[in-house]
Amino acid sequence: MPVPPHAQVTVRAPAKINLGLSVGPPRPDGFHPLATVYQAVALYDDVTATLREDDADVTVEVLGDFADDVPTDDSNLAVRAARLLQSEYDVEEGVDLTIRKTIPVAGGMAGGSTDAAATLVACNRLWGLQLSQSDLERLAADLGSDVPFCLVGHTALGRGRGEQVTEVLSRGTFHWVFAIADGGLSTPAVFKELDRLRPLRRVEAPEVRPELLSALLSGQPAALAVALSNDMQDAALSLRPELAATLQFGLDQGALAAMISGSGPTCLFLAADSRSAVDLAVELSESGLCRMVRQAEGPVPGARILPAPISR
Ligand SMILES: C[C@](O)(CO)[C@H](O)COP(=O)(O)OP(=O)(O)OC[C@H]1O[C@@H](n2ccc(N)nc2=O)[C@H](O)[C@@H]1O
Ligand SMILES: Nc1ncnc2c1ncn2[C@@H]1O[C@H](COP(=O)(O)OP(=O)(O)OP(=O)(O)O)[C@@H](O)[C@H]1O
């Protein structure tokens, strides 16, 4: 039976990378203050929300490359996002969620966070809540530090624990290649390892490097390559030393820069142009150093509703 309009909404949700990730000493609440520059890249999960009119249940089904690694109970971040909307706005309807996953799980690319952001956008439309972008950003911050950025997308500065997001000017398009590792890394475990490796008294307040902001304004990949930084890289490499060989391989094959993505273990490479990105992706695929390789451009917008398919 055909589904009536607005009984089903699909939202496209991008992965994020951190072009700069500066981490301060832990706060009393256990979170670390950050100064980060996020960029949304064209590697997407699609979240489809289908209305349940007869009850308030929330269900989730996960399809795609990494489906087996994603929980389908109430710990799924997309389910948590739907339930948060229900409880805050006394919603009496339910939703069936389908996540088509392309973003690696526990890969340092905010896969779960972006599914949560997409679910907020989808259910806002599905349930006719008419919440503003700033309402959604407030709810997003309750779901996770990366979730507000996943709503906003493009290139943005993240402060606080990462949830305070302001857009940053960036010119042009950058070409990224991702080496996706076997298995994931737990974000809290990588923050813990970072604290173990650094003598805390000497950890300074987090800051964004001015050369990163000017490189983004210039739109020049060579300028961006020397401005990238990630304070979590040493901690991720300490937990997964074999990733150093993947980073070095990419540099040997002509990447302008190589870095761990967020908390890892995904390795990201900046290519000079789309042609070099294809060449690098082929070499990495044949290297046997990673589970799979993906290419994506950035920046791209945050979670966005896709046009409904045309039906007869
Ligand atoms: C590593 C990054 O991806 C960089 O953008 C984020 O900081 C992580 O963001 P996230 O996965 O949305 O993290 P949350 O779900 O908010 O927090 C998960 C756990 O990570 C740690 N955490 C997270 C963010 C932060 N600024 N400091 C932290 O110490 C805490 O142990 C927290 O309990
Ligand atoms: N919708 C979801 N997609 C992926 N993982 C989810 C989801 N919901 C809950 N999880 C759980 O969250 C954990 C972290 O997954 P996620 O893919 O968000 O990590 P990440 O990309 O490293 O996060 P970040 O970059 O925000 O730190 C997974 O191990 C999984 O158990």
From TrEMBL:
Entry superkingdom: Bacteria
Catalytic site: K16, D146
Pathway(s) per entry: Isoprenoid biosynthesis; isopentenyl diphosphate biosynthesis via DXP pathway; isopentenyl diphosphate from 1-deoxy-D-xylulose 5-phosphate: step 3/6
Keywords annotated in UniProt: ATP-binding, Isoprene biosynthesis, Kinase, Nucleotide-binding, Transferase
Domain GHMP kinase N-terminal: 76-153
UniProt GO MF annotations: kinase activity
Broad enzyme group: transferase
EC number of this enzyme: 2.7.1.148
Binding site for ATP: P104, V105, A106, G107, G108, M109, A110, G111, G112, S113, T114
InterPro entries: GHMP_kinase_C_dom, GHMP_kinase_C_sf, GHMP_kinase_N_dom, IspE, Ribosomal_Su5_D2-typ_SF, Ribsml_uS5_D2-typ_fold_subgr
Family that this chain belongs to: Belongs to the GHMP kinase family. IspE subfamily.
Described purpose of this protein according to its UniProt entry: Catalyzes the phosphorylation of the position 2 hydroxy group of 4-diphosphocytidyl-2C-methyl-D-erythritol.
Name of the featured protein: 4-diphosphocytidyl-2-C-methyl-D-erythritol kinase
